[in-house]
Amino acid sequence: MQAAPELFSNRKFWAHRFGVAPQLPMSRAEMDELGWDSCDIIIVTGDAYVDHPSFGMALIGRLLESQGFRVGIISQPDWNSAEDFKQLGRPNLFFGVTGGNMDSMVNRYTSDRRIRSNDAYTADGEGGKRPDRCVVPYSQRCREAYKGVPIVIGGIEASLRRIAHYDYWSEKVRRSVIMDAKADILVYGNGERQVVEIAHRLARKEDIKTLTDIRGTAFITKHGQREGWWEKDSTSVDEPGQLNPPIDPYQMKTAESCDESQTNSSNNKLEDGAQVIEFKRVKRAENPDKEHTVVRLPAYQEVREDKILYAHTSRILHLETNPGNAFALVQQHGERDVWLNPPPIPLTTAEMDGVFDLPYSRVAHKSYGDKNIPAYEMIRFSVNIMRGCFGGCTFCSITEHEGRIIQSRSEDSIIKEVEAIRDTTPGFTGVISDLGGPTANMYRLACKSKEIEASCRRLSCVYPGICKNLGTDHTPLINLYKRARALPGIKKILIASGLRYDLAVLSPEYVKELVTHHVGGYLKIAPEHTEQGPLEQMMKPGIGTYDAFKKMFDKYSKEAGKEQYLIPYFIAAHPGTTDKDMMNLAIWLKRNGFRADQVQAYLPSPMSAAAAMYHSGKNTLGKVRRKGGDISVPKGIKVRRLHKAFLRYHDPENWPMLREALQKMGRADLIGNGKKHLIPTWQPAGTGEQGEGKRVSQKAYQKPASKSFRTQHVRGKALKRKPSKPRRR
After folding, report:
1. What would the pLDDT profile of 433-445 be if each residue is shown by its tens digit?
2. 309-322 pLDDT per residue, tens
3. Is the pLDDT of residue 289 over 80?
4. Is the distance from CB of 651 to CB of 680 less than 8 angstroms?
5. What CA–CA distance (Å, rounded) separates 305 from 169?
6. For the sheet containing 600-601, what is the strand order?
7. Smallest Cα–Cα separation from 671: which of 708, 718, 636, 709?
8. Is the pLDDT of residue 709 over 60?
9. How far apart are CA 551 and CA 569, in angstroms?
C-alpha cells in the first residue's frame, strides 16, 4: 500500500498565531473575543456542538485548528432560510457540511418509518431540530448565503450516499448526494487526510475544481472519458477474466475455497468451536497503469430502473474498498459523471494519537448552559481506542464508512485520555464506561502480511471463518485493560462496545480478563440470529460460536465468584429471513430463558450490502445473475411486525398475531399452556385482540396432523390442567 504524507507535516497556515480556542466559536461575539475578523472554515452540522473527539465536528474542527486555520461551528441552523448560515460571516476557504454523527434519516425515523420523538444529539433530546437528509438543504442554504464559496460535504450521511443508492424511506433509488447538494467535493470515510489536504490547497489559492486527485473524495465532471484514463466496464470486471488460477476475483471464497475449508473444518477447528481458514494471495489481472484505471458503474438511470444492475453496482462498490488495490469508480448521472477516487490511506498509530491528543475541552459548548445532550452523557466517560472493522456484517455501515483496516491508538495515548477524564470531566465517579470502538476486541489486530493485505479482495476477515493470515493476538488489549484499571482513581473499566466473540474465543486469556474485571453484571453481544439462512446473508458466525463463548463466559464468571449474564441481541426481518427462521429463533429464546424488552427490526441503511439485497431480492455476496441467487426478503409492515413479534413471544399483545401465524405455518403444536409451548391459549384481559381475559380454546388452534400429534393432544386434554394466571410485571 502506498504511503501518504504525514497528517501533521504541512506548514501551518498563518492564522495559527491566534492560538488555540477554548472552544470553537459559534457566534460573532466569540470570534471577537478571539480577535478574529473572519473564519477560514465554517463547519455546519446537524448535531449539537460538543467539544469531544467522539463528535465529528469537534474532531475535524480541532484538527483543522492544529493546521493553523480559524474554524467556526454552525450547529443545527434553521434551514428554512439562509440567515442562520450567515451568523459567522463569509468563510475564507470553504463551508464543511455534515449531517452529524448519525445519518439524519436513521436519527429521525424508526425502522417502521415512524418519526422519533427525541434526538440524542440535540440539547435536552429535543426532536425536529434537523431536516430530512440534512446535508442537502444545509448545502443549498450555504450556497444561498454566500455564492462562490466552495462547499465540501462529509460525515456518515454523505459517505453512505456517495453514489446512486437505495433510499428506504422513499422506497426508490436516489442519485448521489453530491448531485442533490450541488457541492464541490464529497469526502467519504473519517476524512482527516482529505480535509487537511483540501484546506491547505485552497489556502494556496488552488481552484476547488482542480482538486480531483485526492483519495477518499468524490466530485462531478462532464460525462465522458477523462483524458489520460483507461476505462473498463464493471460488467467485464465481475467475470472470472484473466486470472491465474482462474477464479472469480469477486467470489466470497478463499483461493482454496471457503466451501472446501468448511468441508475440511476438522483440520482447522479449535476445541472451542472457532474456525480458522486459509487464504492464499492471488494476483488479479489489471492494466499496467493502475493509477489511471477507472471502473465505470452502471448509470444512475439504469440502476434506478433495474434492480439487478443495482445489486451488481453495490457488489462492485463493496469489492473496490481496499486502499491497497481499489480502482477509481465513475457513475453517470444524466449529462455528468460522479467520480469516486480510491479510499484514503488509513491513519498510522502516531497520526491517530495526534488526532485524539488535540486540546478538546471535552464538554458541550457553553451556549447550551445546563441543558443535557443525551449522546454526550452516554460517551463522556468512554474512550475510543480504535476505528474500522474487518467483520464485514452486511447490515452495518461501519465498514463502508471507516474501512476494514483497523487503525489503533497507542497505549500511552489511551491512558493519557483516561487520566484526562479522571482529572477534568465533571461528574466523574471513577468508572470508565467503555474502552472500545466499532468493535471492542479488534484493537491492533491486522493481517500478518502487508503484501497480502494490500491485494486482498475478501469482504470479511472472519467470515465464513477466521482467515489464517489474520493476527488474532489479544495480548496488547489485555495489557491495556490491566494498565488502565491499575490507574489511581479508577475504580472500574467497563467494556460496552460490541464484542466479536468468534475472535474472543481464540484468546481464553482475554475472555478471563474481560469477564473477571470489565463486566458490570451484564455483557451485551450480538449473535443477530440462530438460523443459517439469515446468518449467511449477514456474514455472521453460527450460533455454535456463541455457545462456545457462553461456556467460557460462565466458566470465568464462576471462577471470579460473580453472577453475570450475557444479553444477546437479535435482528428481525433481515434479508434472507423466513417466518420459519423467526419461529425457530423464538423457540431458542424461550428454551434459553431470554425475554427481550426491546427488539431491533432491520433497517436498510444507504449503500450497505444488505440494503442491496433488500431492494433487489438477490444475494450480492456472490455473482449477481438475473436467474438464481434469489433470497427471501421480509417486506411490508405486516411481515415485519410478525418477525418482531416472534422476538417478543412473551408479550401478550403479540399472542393473537403469533397464534394466527403458527396456525398458517402448520405449527399449532406450539400453542398451549405447557413449558414446551411457545405461546399460551389464553389471553389476559385488556391485551391483544381477545382482551376479555378468557381462555381461548386450544382445540381451535390444533388440528391432528398425525397419530403422534393426536395422541399428544388427547393426553394433554385428559390431564385437564388449569392454565395459570399471567404474572404481572
Report:
1. 999 999 999 999 9
2. 999 999 999 999 99
3. no
4. no
5. 17
6. 522-528, 565-572, 600-601
7. 709
8. no
9. 18
Strands (E), 306-454: 328-333, 336-340, 382-384, 386-387, 407-408, 431-432, 434-436
C-alpha 587, offset from chain centre: 29
Q: Which residues of 27-60 are buried (b: 16+ CB within 10 A; e: fewer)?
A: eeebbeeeebeebbbbbbbbbbbbbbbbbbbbbb
pLDDT at 664: 97
Q: State residue 701's pLDDT score.
A: 41
| pLDDT band with cut points at 50, 70 and 90 for residue 395 | very high
The more confidently predicted of residues 285 and 37 is: 37
Helix and strand numbers (H, E) in the chain are 27, 23
CB 201 within 8 A of CB 170: no
The CA–CA distances, whole Å, from 698 to 135, 587, 668, 705, 722 equal 55, 19, 9, 15, 12
Residue 281's pLDDT is 40
For the chain, how big is the Rg over CA atoms in Å?
27
Q: What is the pLDDT of residue 718?
A: 30
C-alpha cell at 450: 502487508
Among residues 57, 54, 38, 37, the alpha carbon closest in space to that of 46 is found at 57
Residue count of the chain, please give it. Answer: 729
Q: Are strands 386-387 and 407-408 parallel, antiparallel or unpaired?
A: antiparallel
Task: Enter the C-alpha cell of residue 191.
Answer: 476524512
Mean pLDDT of the chain: 88
CATH of domain 14-220+335-340: 3.40.50.280
Range of weakest confidence among 193-202, 579-588, 589-598, 664-673: 589-598
What are the b/e assignments for 314-333, b being 16+ CB within 10 Å?
Answer: bbbbbbbbbbbbbbbbbbbb
Q: What is the mean pLDDT of residues 196-214?
A: 97
The pLDDT of residue 241? 28
For 22-74, the pLDDT digits (tens) are: 999 999 999 999 999 999 999 999 999 999 999 999 999 999 999 999 999 99
- Tell which residue, 366, 272, 518, has the closest CA to residue 23: 366
Q: Where in the chain is the domain with CATH 3.40.50.280?
A: 14-220+335-340
Cβ atoms of 355 and 196 within 8 Å: the answer is no
pTM, full prediction: 0.88
The pairing of beta strand 293-297 with beta strand 328-333: parallel
pLDDT of 254 reads 38
Task: Give the separation between CA 431 and CA 243, rounded to whole angstroms.
Answer: 54
Distance CA 356, CA 63 (A): 9
Among 404, 409, 397, CA closest to 436: 409
The pLDDT-based confidence of 1 (bands split at 50, 70, 90) is: low
Q: Cell match 453512505: residue? A: 160
Residue 566 has pLDDT above 80, yes or no: yes
Give the span between the Cα atoms of 511 and 474, in whole angstroms: 10
DSSP for residue 268: H
Task: Provide the b/e sequence for 278-310 (b: ≥16 CB within 10 Å).
Answer: bbeebeeeeeeeeeeebbbbbbbebbbebbbbb
Q: Which residue has the cell 464541490?
A: 184
DSSP 87: T
Q: At 484, list the grid cell.
A: 488502565
> Rounded to 5 degrees, what angle do the CA atoms 185, 438, 453 make?
75
The one-letter amino acid code at 45 reads: T
Query: Which residues are CB-contacts of 598 (< 8 A; sequence separation ≥ 6)?
Result: none
Beta strands in 134-241 (DSSP E): 151-154, 165-167, 172-174, 185-187, 217-222, 230-233
Q: Are 386 and 406 in contact (CB under 8 A)?
A: yes
How confident is the model at residue 689, as a pLDDT? 59
> Cα separations (Å) of 319 from 102, 253, 373, 426, 476?
24, 13, 38, 45, 30
CA dist 329 and 429 (Å) reads 50
